[in-house]
Design brief:
alpha/beta; 6-stranded mixed sheet
């Protein structure tokens, strides 16, 4: 499992090089597979670009085929049961939640039932 992401260099067994990051390398999903969104709809896995990984193997991603006011929508990708959660209008919104709460963003969006039962994040 990846523990960190390196901004430069080739990485190693625990540090993955940022330039090689893709969901297809993180999990076993097929190219062109549709990933359901918890609140409805779906997105092609090829349109998800991870920008923040967590210790559970999940990732916050840009949805690169969807933009609002010239900014990519972001969502939390559950890699164990491929599904998107916590759709946010843009990276700035995500960053504000992170800074204001000083807690994992996904935990500020959903209640304990979703966090524990659906995402298995304990």
């Amino acid at each position: 499992m990846i523990q960190e992401v390196s901004a430069v260099g080739d990485g190693n067994k625990q540090i993955f090089p940022m330039q090689s990051l893709s969901l297809q390398r993180m999990i076993s999903v097929e190219t062109h597979e549709m990933i359901n969104i918890r609140e409805g709809g779906s997105v092609n896995v090829d349109h998800l670009i991870p920008f923040s990984l967590d210790h559970n193997g999940n990732a916050w991603c840009f949805i690169v085929n969807q933009m609002i006011n010239e900014e990519y929508i972001v969502a939390y990708f559950d890699s164990h049961n491929p599904k998107l959660y916590g759709i946010m209008d843009n990276f700035n919104e995500w960053l504000k939640v992170l800074i204001n709460n000083r807690e994992e963003v996904i935990r500020t969006i959903y209640d304990d039932n979703v966090i524990s039962m659906e995402l298995g994040l304990g």
